[in-house]
Amino acid sequence: MLKGFKDFLMRGNVVDLAVAVVIGGAFGQVVNSLVADVLTPLIGALGGAPDFSAIKLGPMALGKFINALVNFVVVAAAIYFLVVVPMQEVSRRLKKEEAQAAPPPPPEEVRLLREILKELRKRA
Fold this sequence. Notes:
Pfam families: MscL. The protein is mainly alpha-helical. The protein is built from four helices and no strands.
């Protein structure tokens, strides 16, 4: 029973998932700091106070929802422009380099002719 548990823990995807969770938590702190300490004060400097928590519609604290919504949009934009777009560019460049480095496979006729030539050289 313990061997099965050890095998489960040592499978590649479990370790990869654990690493992803740890890195994701650390990255979340970086993004939250970027939003709270850099972007939100910048928005506040440009457009007044960025805190909407005082806005209420009757008993509903509408301002807290607006704060959460603005925070979500800013975090999503930060992740998109600081992570997704650069990773897409890196991926595009790597694919372009791979396409240039690896010649296309020869046509079927060329492959057959090479095999025939190889056989003829063996006989000679």
